[in-house]
Design a protein that fits this description.
The chain has 488 residues and is α+β, with helices and mostly antiparallel strands. It has helices spanning 36-46, 142-149, 160-168, 174-181, 228-237, 241-251, 306-311, 330-346, 421-429, 432-446, 452-465, 467-476, 483-487; strands at 59-68, 87-96, 111-119, 122-129, 195-196, 201-204, 210-219, 257-266, 292-301, 324-325. Helix 3 crosses helix 11 (452-465) and helix 4 packs parallel to helix 9 (421-429).
C-alpha cells in the first residue's frame, strides 16, 4: 500500500474541502440541501449492499492458477487443457449453502466450490460443491428444497420439521443426507476438503468425438473434518473461522493445492450403465471409470477487496468454452438458466464486464446499454447481426455437438428409482466409529421434528439403505422401524 497521500474527492472527482462537518445555516442552523457531498455519502451508503446470494451467501475467495499435468487432448479441445504445462489464471469462491451473509462458517452444510478459469477462449466456470452428489435431481424441486433450508416465514427460525418432511418425501436425497450427516458434513477448513463438478458434462475433442465427464478436485492438504462440539464452539467464538484460515494461509505463503481428476464415460455407456449417469444424486463407480489426472490448482493470492472480487464474482455452469458442453442432467439444465438469471438480478445485466468476471480475451458481441455500462458501449460500431460492415461473426467450428433425443414431451422422472443402494454402500464403507457419529448426528437433527410420521417415514428410507442404519436411528429416537419396512 502506497504511503503517498491522495486528495479526497467526490464520486465525480471534485476535491472535498471538509469531510468532517456538514454545511449548515450558521453554527446551529439546519443542514443545507446544497451539501451535495453529504447527500452523496448518505445516498451511496444506503446502497452499499447488493442483494446477497439466495444460496451460497457466505463465502471466501482467492486467486490462483491451474496447470495441466496430463495430456487430455484426446478427450477435449478446450484450449486451457490443450498441453501439459499450460497455466491458466483462475479465481475460486468457497461457501456454505443455506446460511445468510453473516452466518457461521462451521455449520453442518455442503460447501460451494466454484472455480472461474480465465482461458484464452473466454471464461469457463465449474460450479460445484464439496460433495459428488446433491439432494435432488430435477431443478423444478430446487426452490422448494431451499425454502426448507431457510427460515420459517412465521417464526423466522430454522425449521427442522420442514427439512425432514421434504427429505422424507424426496428419497433421492438419502445419499447426500448421509454424506451431510457424516464427518464430512463439517470440513475443518476450506483447504481440507475435496471439490466436485457434481454434474455430468460432455467433453468434445478436435475431431468432434464426445465423451461424458465428471470432475474431482482432490485436496493435497488431506481431508480433515471438525468435531461437532468444536464446530459449535467456533461458530460462537469465531464465525468467520474458515474465511480467516484461507486468507491467513495464503498470506503467509502456505498456498493450498488441489489435483484435478476426471472420470470419462463413453457416450454409449449412458444407455446401459446400472445407474443413470445424468442423475446428480448418484456417483459413477471409480472401479468402472477410474480417475484420470488432469492438472493442479494452486491458490496463491488473496483478494485486494472482498466486495469487488468475492461478493461481485458471478459463476454459472452455463459459462462454457469450446470443448466443454452440458449433458441432459435435469438439475444442470435448470442451473444453466437460473445462475445467469440470478446474477442479472443481484449484480446487474452487465455483471460479466466487472473486472473479476471479465474475460481475459476480447469480448465482441451486439449487446448494448443496460445499467452500469461503464465501457464505450460499442461506440459507433455496427450494433446488429447479420450485417454488411464486417462486424463480429459466428464461427461454425465452435457449434456445440449434438446428442440424440427421443420420446414424448411430458413431465417424467428419471427411469431409475434406486435411491438406496449407493447410500447403503456408503454407510457400510464407514468405520464403526464413523457410523456411530453419523447416527448420533442424524438423531440429534431429527429430535426437534414435531411429527412422528415424518420421523418414521425417514427411518424407513434409512432402513432400506441398510437395516442396521435404520434400526440404530430408530432406537436413538425411541421409535421402532415401521413394520412394513421391517418385513421387507
Amino acid at each position: 500500500m502506497s504511503n503517498e497521500r491522495k486528495n479526497l474527492t467526490t464520486s465525480w472527482g471534485s476535491p472535498v474541502g471538509d469531510n468532517q462537518n456538514s454545511i449548515t445555516a450558521g453554527a446551529r442552523g439546519p443542514v443545507l440541501i446544497q451539501d451535495v457531498h453529504l447527500l452523496e455519502k448518505l445516498a451511496h451508503f444506503n446502497r452499499e449492499r447488493i442483494p446477497e446470494r439466495v444460496v451460497h451467501a457466505k463465502g471466501a475467495g482467492a486467486h490462483g492458477y491451474f496447470q495441466v499435468t496430463n495430456d487430455v487432448s484426446q478427450y477435449t479441445k478446450a484450449d486451457f487443457l490443450s498441453e501439459v504445462g499450460k497455466r491458466t489464471p483462475m479465481f475460486i469462491r468457497f461457501s456454505t449453502v443455506a446460511g445468510e451473509l453473516g452466518s457461521a462458517d462451521t455449520v453442518r452444510d455442503p460447501r460451494g466450490f466454484a472455480v472461474k478459469f480465465y482461458t484464452e477462449e473466454g471464461n469457463y466456470d465449474l460450479v460445484g460443491n464439496n460433495t459428488p452428489v446433491f439432494f435432488i435431481r430435477d431443478a423444478i424441486k430446487f426452490p422448494d428444497f431451499i425454502h426448507t433450508q431457510k427460515r420459517d416465514p412465521q417464526t423466522h427460525l430454522k425449521n427442522p420439521t420442514a427439512v425432514w418432511d421434504f427429505w422424507s418425501l424426496s428419497p433421492e436425497s438419502l445419499h447426500q443426507v448421509t454424506i451431510l450427516m457424516s464427518d464430512r458434513g463439517i470440513p475443518a477448513t476450506f483447504r481440507h476438503m475435496n471439490g466436485y463438478g457434481s454434474h455430468t458434462f460432455k467433453w468434445v475433442n478436435a475431431e468432434g468425438e464426445a465423451v461424458w465427464v465428471k470432475y474431482h478436485f482432490k485436496t493435497e492438504q488431506g481431508i480433515k473434518n471438525l468435531d461437532v462440539k468444536l464446530a459449535e464452539k467456533l461458530a460462537g467464538e469465531n464465525p468467520d473461522y474458515h474465511t480467516e484460515d484461507l486468507f491467513n494461509a495464503i498470506e503467509k505463503g502456505d498456498f493450498p493445492k488441489w489435483k484435478l481428476y476426471v472420470q470419462i464415460m463413453p457416450l454409449e455407456d449412458a444407455d446401459t450403465y446400472r445407474f443413470d449417469p445424468f442423475d446428480v444424486t448418484k456417483v459413477w463407480s471409480q472401479k468402472d471409470y477410474p480417475l484420470i489426472e488432469v492438472g493442479e490448482m494452486v491458490l496463491d493470492r488473496n483478494p485486494e477487496n472482498y466486495f469487488a472480487e468475492v461478493e461481485q464474482a458471478t459463476f454459472s455452469p452455463g459459462t462454457l468454452v469450446p470443448g466443454i458442453e452440458p449433458s441432459p442432467d435435469k438439475m444442470l439444465q435448470g442451473r444453466l438458466f437460473a445462475y445467469h438469471d440470478a446474477h442479472r438480478y443481484r449484480v446487474g445485466t452487465n455483471h460479466q464486464m466487472l473486472p473479476i468476471n471479465r474475460a481475459k480475451n476480447e469480448v465482441n458481441n451486439y449487446q448494448r446499454d443496460g445499467a452500469m455500462r461503464f465501457d464505450t458501449n460499442g461506440g459507433g460500431s455496427v450494433y446488429y447481426e447479420p450485417n454488411s460492415f464486417s462486424g463480429p461473426a459466428e464461427t461454425p467450428e465452435n457449434k456445440q455437438s449434438g446428442f440424440a433425443v427421443s420420446g414424448v414431451a411430458e413431465s417424467v422422472p428419471y427411469d431409475h428409482h434406486d435411491h438406496y443402494t449407493q447410500a447403503g454402500d456408503l454407510y457400510r464403507l464407514l468405520s464403526e466409529e464413523e457410523r456411530t457419529r453419523l447416527v448420533e448426528n442424524i438423531v440429534n437433527a431429527m429430535k426437534p421434528v414435531e411429527r412422528e410420521d415424518i420421523k418414521l417415514r425417514q427411518i424407513g428410507h434409512f432402513y432400506k439403505a441398510d437395516p442396521e442404519y435404520g434400526t440404530r436411528i430408530a432406537e436413538g429416537l425411541g421409535l421402532e422401524v415401521p413394520k412394513e419396512e421391517a418385513r421387507s
